[in-house]
Each structure stands twice: as C-alpha cells, then as structure tokens.
UniProtKB/TrEMBL annotation:
InterPro entries noted in UniProt: ACC_Biotin_Carboxylase, Acetyl_CoA_COase_biotin_COase, ATP-grasp, BC-like_N, Biotin_carboxylation_dom, Biotin_COase_C, CPAse_ATP-bd, PreATP-grasp_dom_sf
Alphabetized UniProt keyword annotations: ATP-binding, Biotin, Fatty acid biosynthesis, Fatty acid metabolism, Ligase, Lipid biosynthesis, Lipid metabolism, Magnesium, Metal-binding, Nucleotide-binding
Catalytic activity, as annotated: N(6)-biotinyl-L-lysyl-[protein] + hydrogencarbonate + ATP = N(6)-carboxybiotinyl-L-lysyl-[protein] + ADP + phosphate + H(+)
Underlying gene: accC
Protein name, entry field: Biotin carboxylase
Domain ATP-grasp: 120-316
Domain Biotin carboxylation span(s) in chain numbering: 1-444
Pfam families reported in the protein's UniProt record: Biotin_carb_C, Biotin_carb_N, CPSase_L_D2
Top-level division of the source organism's lineage: Bacteria
EC number: 6.3.4.14
GO MF entry, a single one: metal ion binding
Amino acid sequence: MFEKILIANRGEIALRILRAAKELGIATVAVHSTADSEAMHVKLADESVCVGPPPARESYLNIPALLAACEITGAEALHPGYGFLSENARFAEILAEHHIVFVGPKPEHIRLMGDKIEAKRTALRLGIPCVPGSAGAITDEAEAKAAAKELGYPVLIKAAAGGGGRGMKVSFSEDDIASALETARMEAKSAFGDDSVYLEKYLEKPRHIEVQILGDGRGGAIHLGERDCSLQRRHQKVWEEGPSPALNESQRKEIGEICAAAMRELQYAGAGTIEFLYEDGKFYFIEMNTRIQVEHPVTEMITGVDLVNEQIKIAAGSALTLTQDDVIFNGHAIECRINAEHPATFRPSPGLINYYHPPGGLGVRVDSAVYAGYTIPPTYDSLVGKLIVHGRNRNEALMRLRRSLDEFIIDGIDTTIPLFQTLVRNSDIQNGLYDIHWLEKFLADGGMDGTE
C-alpha cells in the first residue's frame, strides 16, 4: 500500500479522497490554488502545497506544479478525482515517467474512451449495445446530410472529444443540419481543441442509465448496479438515484453482466462508468467515464462498497477482493447536487456562507467541503455539496430526502435546495415518470416561477 498520496483536486471530492486515504492509513497531501487556501481539505490534510493562482490552468491543471508537489512531499501516488486532469491520458503517462502512480485506469484506456468515436467502435466490439450513428467523424455538410438521411431525423451531432453537453446539437430536418453542424464544431473546438464531430440517432424520450464497474487490470471486473441520472439541465446531471425506477431485475442483471464482461476483456483497471440511453426496453451506449463520478455515493449507499477505497487499492496493485456474488444490493438511494446558484434562474451565487447546518439522521449523508465562514470563490464550478439519502425502498428514500432538504440550511448565498424541495413533491418524480428532457420542460413551463 502507498505511504503517501497527493490529491490533485478541490472541493468535496478532494475531501472524499482524503477521508478514504486516511482510513487506509495513507498520509495525504492537498494541493490548492491561492483561492482555496482556506479549503476544508487543505485544513485536514497532513501536508499542503500551493500550486498556483486561482485560474485552474495555472493551478489544478498545471502539470509541472503538480509534479513538483509530488517530488517535494515524496508522494508515491496521485488521485485526480473527477474533472481537471482525471481523464488526461498524457498526464497519466507523465506521472508514470516520473515513477508516480496515477490512481485511475491505464493511459491507453483513458485515451480510447476519451475519443467518443473510438469508444463506440470498442463498445460494439465488446458486445455493448450502441446508438445507431455514423461510422466515423463527419467532415462536411454533404456527409452529415447523407448520414442523417440514412439514420432518419432527428439526429444528434456530438463532439468526438467531448462531454458534459458541450459540442452537442440536435438537427430535426435537413433545413437546420448545416447550422447545427457548424455550431457543434465551433463549440467542440472551443471546449476541447478538436472540432471532430459524429452523428447519432436522436432518441425522443430516453432515460440516462449508467452502470458502475470496478476492474483490477488483470482480467477481473465486476459491476455494482446502475444509477438513473435522467434529471438533467443542459446535459448536466442534477438528481441521481439507484436502482433505476425504470428497470426490472432481469434488465438490471443483463446490462450489468454485459458491462462487467466487456471490462474483463478490456482488462480495465480501476473505477469506471458505462453510460447508456434507455428507451423502449433497449440500452444504447453513449460513453464511458474512466474516473470516479460525482454521483458515486449512490452506489456506495446501496452496496456498502467504498469505491474510492477500491480505486486506491487497485492502483496499489491489489487484485479485486470482491466477486460479483459479494455485491449485495440493499434498498434505494438518491443524490441531489446542491449548487451555489439561484434555484430558478441558475445564476451563479459565489460568496460568504454565514451559517451552515447540514441535515442528519439515519440514512442521510452529506458530501461537502463548505463550512460557516467559508467563501465560495467565483473561479470554479458551483457545486456546494451533495445530499445523499438511503431508504429500504424508493418511497422511504423520497420521504427521507424531503425531510433532509427541509433541514438543510445554507445562509448567505443562493442554492438549488428550493429546486429539490419542489421536485421531491412532484407527482411525476414520486412515480418515477421522467426522462432526460423532463426537467428542462418543467422549468420552461414555469415550474419554479415565484421562487425568490
């Protein structure tokens, strides 16, 4: 096992990794920008190193500074968390060149799954069902029109190197495909430095289902069930739950076993998530995330498996100690992402937290790195924390979530807590009758009108 690990991230995920490392007896090193000098993970780590000024490109994305921090502190391994450099294959290679272990998959798997076109080809080869789409990148308008005609409108134009909803545009007819293609390519170039795009059939009312996997890089791999992440705004997940209210036990088992078998063949190492659109009883692969997910606590709550702990042990060279039969699913869990945003307009709301009171009680977990007196900087994403609840069944989890949201107080800034207080009382949500477009339609129809 490692003696010391450097955490190359910030916020709640940095604190989450720190806690897992300490429970394994591993010393921790926090890195931070000057804007994060008072952050909770910095206060709790055994050592801390400032790696630059507030802009991420000069601090959390500053590879020479991170390498220097590892060298100065003697850290043997680096955990990237999510975002920032977590899916940068070249960064993983550079760490290996400096004899520092990257807590994550092999660089070739990061690179493979980071290219959405190659990822889809690989998924098909591994027997994972995919959305019908173009065979490769679309280079011009004529090629886009030909592919769209073959697939049938509407079609989705997607960035090959993308994620998070950037570089994605829907075309409903030949009349708008040229403009959609141009916009998607410009967004892809701006966000990822690569304007390559491809086409997929656009599904009208799908759900977003993802399967959590763990692999040891030696041909061992298991799945830990699915999460339903269909409540989204601008392709960003807002509410996640598991198991999905849309699946039955046979569907759940079938897609889980397909994913685990694929990862065994790939000899994948670490945690990963295989994401699907699900419509009319069929799964369609969309991408694989080769890192820990924001919503990983949902899986931890229903399986009792510490995913970050497993990541670290696998990176240290351990084979999987869990078999598929060891994974026992228990009850239902729901996660809400609490952001520093106005709950109706989603205007960012950085600033000083005057008072902070998280909810508690049986089956309630809050993953957050904020505290009373902490100032949320305007430089980074707006995630304040995650409220996760667990119940013996979905109804109990919903009631526990309702109670917990009513207890949660964050004074001094706007947060999205009122949005979730509204959603948990909505009959469609209570009955599990939603798809990936539901939330945006709810908001467009004035679902949060009157929220101050």
